[in-house]
Known about the structure:
Elements lengths: L6 H20 L2 H4 L5 H24 L7 H20 L8 H22 L2 H13 L3
Helix pairs in contact: 1-3, 3-4, 3-5, 4-5
Amino acid sequence: MLPLRYARRWQVAGVLVLLSVFAATVMPAVWLWPSTSLKMLFSADKWLHGVTFAALAVWFSGQYARRSYWRIGSGLLIFGIIIELCQRMLTFRSAELADVGANAVGIVVGLSIALAGFGGWSLRVESWLSRRRQPG
């Protein structure tokens, strides 16, 4: 983990983010989008997977050094597989190998964004917050 002043808070937030994603993926889809046609939801499904996992990769790249990015990618890929296995056990959700592929693409995109200079963003947020609190 990066030398963060509020490392524990970042870790707790990360767990809450993962739990939120997990909860959203195992609840009935109509609970999330009750007024959306199912046809539109299914066409957006792979994009939602990719964007979600890209955001997760960027989130965790904010707290960990570049040398840990392979762990972030591996962990998120395993998380995506666990989600699909859980969805397979539910009667109101379906598991698809293509979802795991969309997750993997999202992870690569997110880690590419991190490598392009966005990694470690939480250090910059903490620095900005500390400068903002100082009397000027």
